[in-house]
Design goal:
CATH class of the largest domain in chain B: Alpha Beta
Largest sheet of chain A: 7 strands, mixed
Bound molecules: iron/sulfur cluster
CATH class of chain A: Alpha Beta
Mean pLDDT of chain B: 97
Number of domains of chain B: 2
CATH topology of the largest domain in chain B: Aconitase, domain 3
Strand content of chain A: 15-25%
Strand order of the largest sheet of chain A: 4-3-2-1-5-6-7
Helix content of chain B: 25-40%
Structural class of chain A: alpha/beta
Number of helices of chain B: 15
Shape of chain A: globular
Order of helices and strands of chain A: EHHHEHEHEHEEEHH
Oligomer: heterodimer
CATH superfamily of the largest domain in chain B: Aconitase, domain 3
Number of helices of chain A: 8
Distance between the termini of chain A: 22 Å
CATH topology of chain A: Aconitase, domain 4
């Protein structure tokens, strides 16, 4: 599978408080989360982001709180993948568990600029950028399965309950 | 050891005995979870995910605790409505280990009640679950979907982590606490220096330290990206919990050792907006502050209130001081011992036990450009309020001294 999209580029240590501040978490209306996504860095981000866009970031993306709303805010804003130098551990789990494609790829920060279009080839584990092709290590089989199921909920239904749609 | 000769880290041994075979770092395994907990912040989403999973019954209600600490008491109708939803779930599922608003922060209440014991695998739907790694167990912080899966199956998948050992040698100088030690570790490792790894704290300083001070060390492991923290348990650990457990020790397999001479550590401050932006207090002294916060799962325990009271006794604060005890037990003891009186005489206000202003939603939110010195663990942009506000992280001693002067102050001036 190949996906391509326009890049929104961020730096290192993008934490969950800037992805979605705690003041929006205690909301009965979940549509509020994507509306405020990444507001801590760029208050106009949610109005500019388009479905299919890709986030490229530096080290330690998603550090901080365990709030899964950080993943949901990004996913529901239409982001199709996050490619980062590295991810914080809980964010990584939350992302895979919600079927959000997360790719750890060393060197990605220097290879792309904001607004570039990149192409990710999931079968081959490569990313095409204007500055060349980068290789990344694909997810272990087991996590791939969760991601392919669309997340841990679907995986659970399929594997444990045997009642997948 | 049940597997004959098996030299490994304590965490590898805990996982191995849980699944009945030797494991090594890098292995992916599914492990049984001995205890799980979540709070009012993560609860509503967990319940939604369980519904999506079509799970009607949790795996084992007596192995689950729920603690209301994040919006305690709720600050608006939506927060209250979400709490009501969690209460309903708790009743339906017969979860009896439920702690209402005002009983304290989950990472404090869970060990105080003796719900966990050394050697266990414990999962919490909160990133600071690593705090209870100070009790010689494997503590894993997780998100809502992972927690829902655990509540459904009693299991979770993990990658067996590597261990970084931090050895603290010698004694702490006057006016220096375990908070200063862990800030120094943050400076050395940076915000991602321990990603996916376990930080194991050892050495003479840690052995001499109270169990509460050890919790402060473990608490901030996640700020360096660590999967969790681990401290080998001893009598003090068992006394805190009021129960025994299985003791595991690391005898081999450590990926990296960092040795720190505690007597050379002075009071530290983490400058906004990074926890690893750590400087000696002498380098930032004089920075004006509007508010001081003494509390959180890092430093809201009895000894923290006591150390602050020693400095505040007979003095008045210039910057408003908000004190939020980590649990009701802490508050009651501090009240009986006259510590609350001392704090209030100095001008402090006392909040309902729980997270307080730590997460920037209530009980002391910062306005535009306001500056706070805080004993908590995160100084991210907007963490405690407005985007332009600033949070400096420090020990209870430094926080108390700073509130007296209305600017960042070296606490050693107030100790003789
Ligand atoms: S005190 Fe702060 S860091 Fe600790 S659990 Fe509560 S919100 Fe999180």
């Amino acid at each position: 599978m190949i996906i391509s999209g326009r890049v929104w580029k961020f730096g290192d240590d993008i934490d969950t408080d800037v992805i979605i501040p705690a003041k929006y978490l205690r909301s009965v209306d979940k549509s509020i989360w994507p509306k405020h996504v990444l507001e801590g860095i760029d208050p106009t981000f949610s109005s500019k982001v388009k479905s299919g866009d890709i986030i490229v970031a530096g080290k330690n993306f998603g550090c901080g709180s365990s709030r899964e709303q950080a993943v949901l805010a990004i996913k529901w804003a239409g982001i199709s993948a996050i490619v980062a130098e590295s991810f914080a551990r809980i964010f990584f789990r939350n992302g895979i568990n919600n079927g959000l494609l997360l790719i750890e790829c060393k060197g990605i920060s220097n290879a792309v600029d904001n607004g570039d279009v990149i192409e990710i080839n999931l079968n081959e584990g490569i990313i095409k950028t204007k500055r060349g092709i980068l290789k990344y290590k694909p997810l272990p089989q087991f996590l791939q399965e969760i991601l392919n199921s669309g997340g841990l909920v679907e995986y659970y239904k399929k594997k444990i309950k045997g009642s997948a749609p | 050891m049940i597997f004959g000769v098996y030299m490994a880290t304590a965490i590898e041994k805990i996982i191995s005995s849980a699944i009945g075979r030797k494991v090594y770092s890098g292995d992916f395994v599914e492990v049984p979870v001995d205890f799980a907990y979540f709070h009012d912040g993560t609860g509503p989403l967990i319940i939604d995910v369980l519904k999506e999973m079509e799970v009607n019954r949790v795996f084992s209600p007596e192995k689950i605790a729920v603690i209301f600490d994040h919006a305690a008491p709720p600050y608006n109708d939506q927060a209250a409505t979400l709490q009501a939803k969690v209460r309903k779930f708790i009743r339906e599922q017969n979860i009896t280990k439920f702690h209402e608003i005002g009983e304290g922060i989950c990472h404090q209440v869970v060990p105080e009640k003796g719900y966990v014991a050394p050697g266990m695998i414990v999962c919490g739907a909160d990133s600071h679950t690593c705090t209870i790694g100070a009790f010689g167990l494997m503590a894993l912080g997780m998100g809502a979907t992972d927690m829902a899966y655990i509540l459904a199956t009693g299991k979770t998948w993990i990658k067996v982590p590597e261990t970084i050992r931090i050895e603290f040698k010698g004694f702490l100088k006057k006016g220096v606490s375990s908070k200063d030690l862990i800030l120094e570790v943050a400076r050395i490792l940076g915000t991602d220096g321990a990603t996916y790894k376990v930080l194991e704290f050892t050495g003479e300083t840690v052995k001499k330290m109270s169990q509460s001070s050890r919790m402060t060390l473990a608490n901030m492991a996640v700020e360096m990206g660590a999967k969790t923290a681990f401290i080998e348990p001893d009598d003090k650990t068992m006394e805190f919990l009021g129960r025994e457990g299985k003791i595991y020790s690391t005898d081999d397999g450590v990926a990296e050792i960092i040795s720190i001479d505690s007597q050379y550590i002075d009071p530290k401050v983490a400058i906004p907006y990074k926890v690893s932006n750590v400087k000696s207090v002498t380098e930032v002294e004089g920075e004006p502050i509007d508010q001081a916060f003494l509390g959180s799962c890092t430093n809201g325990r009895y000894e923290d209130l006591l150390e602050a009271a020693k400095i505040l006794k007979g003095r008045k604060v210039r910057a408003r001081l908000i004190v939020v005890p980590a649990s009701k037990t802490t508050l009651v003891k501090a009240m009986k011992d006259g510590i609350i009186d001392i704090l209030m005489d100095s001008g402090a206000i006392i909040g309902v036990p729980g997270c307080g202003p730590c997460l920037g939603v209530h009980m002391g939110v910062l306005g535009e450009d306001e500056v706070c010195i805080s004993t908590s663990n995160r100084n991210f942009i907007g963490r405690m309020g407005a985007r332009s506000s600033k949070v400096y992280l420090a020990s209870p001693q430094t926080t108390a001294a700073s509130s007296i002067e209305g600017k960042i102050t070296d606490p050693r001036r107030y100790l003789d």
